[in-house]
# Entry
Amino acid sequence: RFAEPPLSTFRPRSTASSRSITRSHDRSSGRPIPTKSSPPSGGGTKRWNQSTSRYGHKEIKQALLTETNEKCAYCECKPLHVTFGDVEHICPKGVEPAKAYDWTNLTLACSVCNNRKRAKQKLVDPYEDSPADAFEFFGPMISKRHGVPNAKRTRIELDLNRKELLSQRGEFLAKIRSELMENRSNPDVVERQLTEEAIMSHYRLEASQFSACAHHFLEDFVSRNPL
# Structure
């Protein structure tokens, strides 16, 4: 049976935000680590027919897309423009079959991260662990922080610095830098400052692809190039 915990164990969607293991906003923002969002309509009473792959039901999938801002919970790419996105079991269903239909064990992953993870365990959990404590970025490259035993294993097993991701992150950061530098040439001081704040706020949004990478890049850019 679809082992959803009672609805009371969840915070409402409006007070929970998306998570990914590369999201690194918690330390600088001081916000509490979000919890898993509520299950789709029906709460803890709704069940799906096991023969139809209940965790792949369209309502489940849509709820996960909303919860993750349509981003892979592991690498923060937005896979929907090239694939459907996979319903991912955080704890592999082959390891703990009882969690195969547990809402709290489901998230969204791109097909590459999902295929690389498979039945691997002892990885950084995108909901239970703090990404800011586990990872940091140097340009488009992600690196483990010291003292987090599962961070290095996660980076290696999921290949979070694979060439496709490095290329996408690099292009993304180049776009941000271009916008910032173009704005810096504006002679109007007030307009320049307001526009820069708007650019930075936009790319720091959790809904933005690679927002964790952008967050680190923007901090570094401002420290090196103060207005």
Observations:
- The radius of gyration is 19 Å.
- The longest strand covers residues 86-89.
